[in-house]
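Lecture 7 notes: from sequence to structure.

We start with a single chain of 637 residues. Read the sequence below before looking at the structure.
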Amino acid sequence: MADLLLARAPVPAYMGLQEAPFMTHFANVTDASSRVRKDEPAMSGSGGSANLGPLPEWNLGDLYSAPDGADLARDFAAVEQRAAAFEAHRGKVAAMDSAAFGAAIAEYEAISEMQGKIGSYAQLYQSGDVSSPERGRFYQDTVERLTVLGGKLLFFTLEINRLEDADLAAKMKHPTAARYAPWVRDLRVMRAHELSDDLERLFLDKSTTGRTAWVRLFDETLASMRCTIDGEALTLTAALNRLSDPNPERRKLAAKAIGAALGGEATLFTLITNTLAKDKVVEDDWRKFARPVSSRNLANLVEDEVVDALVSAVKGAFADTAHRYYVLKAKWLGKDKLEYWDRNAPLPTADHRDIPWTVAQETVRGAYAGFSPKLVSIVDDFFAKNWIDAPARPGKASGAFSHSTVPSVHPYILLNYLGSARDVQTLAHELGHGVHQVLAAPQGTLISGTPLTLAETASVFGEMLTFQALLAKEKDPVQRRALLAGKVEDMLNTVVRQIAFHDFERQVHDARKAGELSQEQICEIWLGVQKASLGPAFRYDDEYKYYWAYISHFLHVPFYVYAYAFGDCLVNALYNVYATKAVPNFEAKYLDMLAAGGKLRHKELLAPFGLDATDPGFWRRGMKTIEGFIDELERTS
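Now the structure, written as tokens:
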């Protein structure tokens, strides 16, 4: 699977401060549950060709007709009117009886849905061409208007969180209010970190000229960047694609060009990183978060000790997973050491032919159909109803994501399909997000969203279904080894590499507290975590020190990345339960888990499968799955 990262925000920027999504009522509205596949845009062996066949492009008309469409203008006017009317509740939440309280939450949800629909359209429209100034202006104007609306409604959640437990319990008795109990429960976890109404409004209002503006500058810089290879100016996506080229010289030229392009902008990227890290320090201090990762853990509804156990288990397995695998890969490539541009190199025996879109569609559809008729019926809608945008166009946001939009519409998937086996797995992954979002939609705007840690469950499970279907069909032992090696690399990119990224973030944010970091300091931290995680099988040329600069999650959603490792290890355990038939009625329980959305916490969701993420051995079990695949590769090498 692709080891990539989308240069977009998984949580749309208009949601306000991304370190503390609880600050705004958008928090659970349009979490794009983006994949945003790790750290590199979609890659293939040849860069794509006409052999791929016609590729689908999405139709955003189910949201709005156009940026200047009458339907969008009408909805914007309506939501602004409803938000203004809702302000009549300001200062009165404590005095509401249970029926009035439930009715107020229902109206709040309806307004949130309208705002989410508008914001989703703006983000998806801009994603089609991030380099377009017109689209950028439309997106920014929309962000600013939605932020003003968010400020008008901010009082409501703040007043709810100032209620004493006994008073709140009385208000939750009416059936309308009781329906929103999971949303209120999750809202309350941020209670100790909220500020006064005026300060919350200030943080929100300034986000459009602060964090959001810096992230937009980063996005536009990345989108306009060109990597010069043999006189040809390539986009970053196209250049990164060549890192999986079968020809080592083409990989080397691409790697050098990427490093040179990133190095040319390193001063700007260093400034952006320092500014946003300091911004987080300031907000964390005001909100009294103990560690830089604390706000993310709380937003993910996962305990600090669970995340610490995950990180510890993965780092403790570096030697038995990544270090061991890359020694094998060096042998397969006939090298004593791998160059850093060899990390995603295909095996010499691998099939490098482009995979036409129709074949990719049939492969993924078949894998889902083999598991669940209900899931494949949802998958069919994505293919048949123009919910997918697949071509890799100049200016288009790189990577891949599934944007949930709002429950009254449907998700949209963005890909950059170039015809590789990894791209097929990316399709499977994003469709996993998509079916999850469709199944959870009946929970409504405020409850359908899941924490980032659980948002990766269906996507990674979909990948595993597709991989196992491909593996079962492959009878050639050479190609089987190549397929298995590709899966191991994807798992290493999802688990080991993401925890290394998490460690990079931790070190950068910790160091920023003492003062602004130099370019050299950031580069040194980057090289340190790469060497520790990937092991002694690699050589790193000087320009690789700049590769931290395009990992957009570091800026868009700090400390997002461990969610990938969380999801992958969780799915390793979950798939083992499915494959061994250890739990009866697995399919029904799995569908119930997805349909729950944010209604249940991870302990409740995993209990029907006999799994417990608070068990220290749970994460080690997930790493054993990767080690088992490497054991098989060693036996057949």
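The first helix runs from residue 70 to 86. Keep this in mind for problem set 3.
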